[in-house]
Amino acid sequence: MIPSFFRILVIGRNTLVEAVRQKVLSVLLIFGLVLVGSSVYVSTIATPGLDAAGLFDEQIKFVKDFGCGAIGLFGFAIALLSTAQLIPQELQSRTVYTILAKPVRRAEFLLGKFLGVVLLLALAVTLMSLAFAASLYWQETVGLKYAQDVYDQHMPNWQNSPQLVSQYNHDIQDIVSKVQDPQLVEAILLLFAKLVMTAGIALLISTFATSSIFTIITTFMVYLIGHLEGVARDVWLARGAETSLWQSGLAGLISLLVPDLNSFTIVDEILAGNHVPWVHTLNLLGYAEVYLVVLLAVSIIIFDFREI
Amino acid sequence: MMSSTLPLSRRLRRAALVALLLGLWAPGKILWEQKIAHEQDFLRYHGVTMSRELRDQLGQGLTIGVLSGMRSVVADFIWAVNVTLAWEDEQWFRMSGLINLCTTLQPRAATFWDIGGWQLSWNASVAAAEDLKQPNALRRLRASRFWIEKGLEIYKRGIENNPQSWTLWAHTGLLYQQRLKDYRNAAYYYQKTSELPGAPVFYERFPALMYGLAGDDQAAYAAWKSLWERLTPEQREEKEHWKEKVESNIHRLEQKLSVPTEKRIFPK
Q1: What angle do CA A133, A137, A141 make, to 5 degrees?
Q2: Nearest alpha carbon to residue A63 among A38, A29, A87
Q3: Weakest-pLDDT range from A177-181, A215-219, B101-105, B263-267
Q4: Would you say residue B209 lies in a domain?
Q5: Which of residues 103-122 of B touch A (CB under 8 A)?
Q6: Alpha carbon distances (Å) from B212 to A159, B12, B216, B222, B231
Q7: What is the model's pTM?
Q8: Per the domain annotation, does B201 fall within a domain?
């Protein structure tokens, strides 16, 4: 058991090193970092000249949305591109023969490769999250300075009025609580879980695909369908008179096979400032984990039987 | 040599194993997803269901964006680019449609409802009232009123979707107070505001002030009295914040309404 774990770890580490050396992934990561970092600028374009305290909500919403949007978008691209070429690249360069000739089981090889992608995603999401945190810090500094300026300019000697001091403290607290929202950790975790699930889907497809392009296109389609899985499930479970047999069958097939990725858009609610209980987040993370285990198990079965 | 060259028995075995695994997982998956969906419904996170109408409004590119889980970014993009442009060009009907689109995409983002309602009931209605292309003053007034009502509708729908957002309740109260001069409704919305977490403390005084503006001294007195009774002894001593404002109003109304001495809070 332990030697097997170490073999997976070694393959995972090598996969990560190989991935980091790839220019395409590095460029994607740099673009992601730039976009996350520029979210503050985007927010000021979005509300030109409207930096009054009342519109701070709008600006902070843009910073959060664009920051997490960029993490999701570039994370998706990194997950897709890095996973899609895992197996075809190994087959093409014939390194898979050298590895599998050693006492390495196919399952270990596959899990090691996937671990490498997960580590890569963790690295990318961490870096982009740090850039996101810096953007939020900047936005908070701007907001606090603006609030101070408004009070100083429009309400001279406001420090002498308990009511204005109380209002000022309330405004400051409001800004700080919106920026330093601990729920953002939940949002990042959910984004990461969704990216790992996407990588899992890509890995499964790549175990029987003959080219990376096929894996990329098919995974993208499954990703889109995954956001509509809830609709398919409702159609299938309702089985109304207006639903034909083949429609119901198709909806059922989608419901049974494709993950419900739309549930993860609850991240939007967190970013909009709504409270999402940790229990619900953990439920979603648990779902992602179990789904991933099934994906990996199916991938291992298919890869185990594959003639190389 | 690819998988297609595998012997039939191996292929069947592989297919049977995969089918078994998926067959075991599928019922649990459906039940789990249903549970998550119910939880999200309970938490009021309905999100958005892609309809033909919504797809037509969004266009192909933005529809793919929504389907890729970028709902909030798409809503922000429409808000930042299209709503701002419509506002600058004073295309109020277009802006109203775009505000509806953004709020449909993100019904739980209170800021869209808040600023959307403000755009229509203030900016659009003032522009309509001052529209010199319309020589008829009555028509200008009617157009202005039309946009106030549209803004009010946005605020009320926003409250339905975000009942815990004190800003929406407060700004609906402000709309009733300043744009419609309906002080009773303003008092109701300010009262609700003051009961919500995060609302500034001064909103507690607003219902009584609104009843005063409405000319209903009895209701104003009742509201001031109720507020005074809710205050802690420390708050009652806070001179500028509470004491002067609440005490002076109660004192004034007790005299004006000739409240019997034994029922007065401030008999002197």
Answers
A1: 170
A2: A38
A3: B263-267
A4: no
A5: 106, 108-111, 114-115
A6: 30, 83, 6, 11, 20
A7: 0.84
A8: no
CA distance B200 to chain A (A): 7
Evaluate whether residue B242 is within a structural domain. no
Question: Residues of A numbered 19-38 whose beta carbons fall under 8 angstroms of chain B's beta carbons: which are they?
Answer: none
- Check residue B198 and report its DSSP letter: T
Q: Tell whether B248 lies on the interface with A, counting CB pairs under 8 A.
A: no
Q: String of b and e for A157-186 (b: at least 16 CB within 10 Å)?
A: eeeeeebbebbbeebeebbeebbebebbeb
Domain annotation covers residue B174? no
Number of neighbouring beta carbons within 10 Å of residue A208? 17
For residue A92, the model assigns a pLDDT of 83
Q: What is the pLDDT of residues A133-165, one digit of tens each?
A: 999 998 888 888 888 888 888 888 888 877 788
Min Cα separation A305/chain B (Å) = 7
The whole-angstrom separation of Cα A13 and Cα B40 is 38
Q: What ipTM was predicted for this assembly?
A: 0.85
Contacts of B168 in chain A (CB under 8 A): none
Residue to test with chain A: of B5, B22, B38, B40, most A Cβ within 10 A: B40
Find how far residue B48's CA is from the centre of its chain. Answer: 17
Closest CB from A163, A229, A304 relative to B240: A163
Other Cβ atoms within 10 Å of A286 Cβ, number: 13
The answer, for B49 touching chain A at a CB cutoff of 8 Å, is yes
| Cα of A44 to nearest chain B Cα, Å | 10
Q: Mean pLDDT throughout B26-48?
A: 83
Single-letter amino acid code for the residue at B233: P
Helix (H, G, I), strand (E, B) or coil at A94: coil
Instruction: For residue A51, name the pLDDT band (cuts at 50, 70, 90).
Output: very low
- The dihedral over CA atoms of B102, B103, B107, B113, expressed in degrees to the nearest 10, equals 120
Backbone angles phi, psi at B48, to 5 degrees: -140, 140
| Residue A20 Cα, gap to closest chain B Cα (Å) | 26
Where do we find the tokens 């019997």?
B260
Domain that includes residue B58, residue range:
50-162
Sign of CA dihedral B234, B237, B243, B246: positive
Cα–Cα distance between A10 and A234 in angstroms, integer?
44
